[in-house]
Amino acid sequence: MTAWIVFIGCALFLVYIVVGYPALLKWMSARFPRPVSKRRIQPPITVLIAAYNGAKYIARKLDSVLALEYPRERMEILVISDGSTDETEEIVRSYAGRGVRLLRVPRGGKPAALNAGIPQTSGEILVLTDVRQEVEPQSVQNLMDCFADPKVGVVSGDLIIRGADREDQADVARYWDYEREIRKRLGRIDSFFGATGPFYAIRRELAVHVPPDMLLDDVYLPLSAFFKGYRLIVEEGARAYDYPTSRETEFNRKVRTLAGNYQILRAYPKLLGPGNRLWLHFMSYKFGRLMLPYALLGMAVSSLFLPGWLGKAALGGQILFYALAYLDRFATPGTLLKRLTSPCCTAVTLIVAAVYALKVFFVEPRELWKVTSAGKMS
Description:
49% of the residues lie in helices and 15% in strands. By secondary structure, the chain is of the alpha/beta class. Strands 3-2-1-4-7-6-8-5 form an 8-stranded mixed beta sheet, sandwiched between helices. Helix 8 (247-267) runs parallel beside helix 11 and helix 9 packs across helix 11.
């Protein structure tokens, strides 16, 4: 009987976190929306780009920023080179005649780069964006319109993943679409817990110093605004475009973000208590994700002790799931088998990442940073 209680409890928890909570959130965002009071405003802004060895993308990025439909005299552009050793700085200097400033800092990671760069800015609103993603011309103006609402402290752009060439890239893109919907719906009822790191804006007076070893500066900064009573939202009309990533790259990124969540809990313990006005959502979303591997472990162990054919079916279903994930490395792209194995492998990869993220308690956090093939920190 105990084995059944553990198995069913873990299974229900898994279903709630993956399916039930998103469905509940969809209903709540439709039933209890909090509209943002938007109007056209054009405050002075600073576009901040922290880059490490981003020579492959920096010119395209700066062209994208310079093409923004926003008054040029009200926009400063600052690129912070985090000790780049490639041609990034040389390329940025070639844009000096178009008003782009370069700040070179010793290699110290993105939080240290932002800490050095933000005091050098003059804009009322800071637009933080990474080197890889191009932004649509009207995107920044659409971000600014949201700041007409005095309750809004942080506005994220809507990050779109370009078309994928492989099954694993498509799976990662589908996972991001799932994540995007949760973020948008949380923003509709109040706030989501952080910002879309590659492209978001924050009121300058809300930008606090980020601990240099913080893995999630795009969560630490916005949460400071959240606990001051401001809203953190997504503006769907502010689109940025990213390139598809492989499952391996997503694994490294997920390890970093989940490890960063442990740091965030230490930095903002109020997230777990009554000081969090969105406690149910945090526990169902961020904290629940951290607990998923343990729910799966509970299901696996308890199913060994389940009696009868139902117990054998429960165990067999789990074995089949993990077997399909393992077979993905042998499946031929484009086949039916690959379409079955690839989602299973991606799910297992993300689950393993959640366990591997515990490494943050035993190593220096910066060891969990990886340089992606796109020339930015993942």
